[in-house]
Design a protein that fits this description.
This protein is an alpha/beta fold and 205 residues long. The protein has a single domain, classed as Vaccinia Virus protein VP39 (Rossmann fold). Helices cover 32% and strands 28% of the residues. Strands 3-2-1-4-5-7-6 form a seven-stranded mixed beta sheet. The longest helix has 15 residues, at 7-21. The radius of gyration is 16 Å and the shape is globular. The termini are far apart. Mean pLDDT is 89; it is low at 1-11.
Length: 205
């Protein structure tokens, strides 16, 4: 297997691999609530899940009939995702790659999702720009991440303002996609009795 990760990303990946190896699941087994609400009514096609982690969103999409490719730089997470997909009887093309180097084929996916990929501004622009170009005609782009406002007005998430963003930061990197929704959204954190603030951007080609 070709390793597309840089030395810097390898160090980051090692930290995430340690986290993924430390427990059965880092994230919940079910899909993100915004994925279900935003794309649940779309006809299945080809989907790309960037920063897929343990695969919960990619696997859910596959269960809805999508042909899914999931990409993440943490090989431990990808191995867990493959095992979970096998147990649930779905086929997902999971790949290990650094998203700062990974270039998906342009206009090839009916749905491209990026969930909670928290990077510094120039790296976000790089990944979002490539993700937007990967959307096929008539296809949908959907991003959800920790909003900058969460640092002061929400709960949890990264505490480094450099890796937080607002919807308008994402829109600026989307190129010629037509933005359908770009706004902060509240996400109840039920175990904590709190609310987190996320940035949500949905666009179409």
């Amino acid at each position: 297997m070709i390793d597309y990760r840089s030395s810097t990303e390898l160090m980051k990946a090692e930290a995430w691999n340690a986290r993924y190896a430390g427990k059965e699941l880092v994230w919940s087994a079910g899909p993100n609530r915004f994925l279900v609400s935003e794309v649940g009514d779309l006809p299945p096609g080809r989907a790309l899940d960037l920063a897929c982690g343990e695969g919960r969103n990619a696997i859910w999409l596959a269960e809805q009939g999508w042909q899914v490719t999931g990409v993440d730089f943490a090989d431990v997470a990808i191995e867990k995702a493959r095992a979970i997909a096998a147990r649930r009887g779905v086929d997902v093309d999971f790949r290990v790659a650094d998203l700062l180097a990974f270039e998906p084929p342009e206009q090839s996916f009916d749905l491209v999702i990026v969930f909670y990929l928290q990077l510094v501004a120039d790296e976000v622009r790089t990944v979002v720009g490539r993700a937007g170009r990967a959307v096929a005609p008539g296809g949908t782009f959907l991003l959800v991440g920790h909003d900058s406002r969460n640092l002061t007005d929400g709960w949890g998430g990264p505490q480094d303002a450099r890796v937080l963003f607002r919807p308008e930061d994402v829109v600026a990197a989307l190129g010629d996609l037509a933005v359908e929704r770009a706004e902060p959204v509240e996400r109840p954190v039920e175990d904590e009795g709190a609310v987190a603030i996320d940035a949500l951007v949905r666009a179409r080609r």
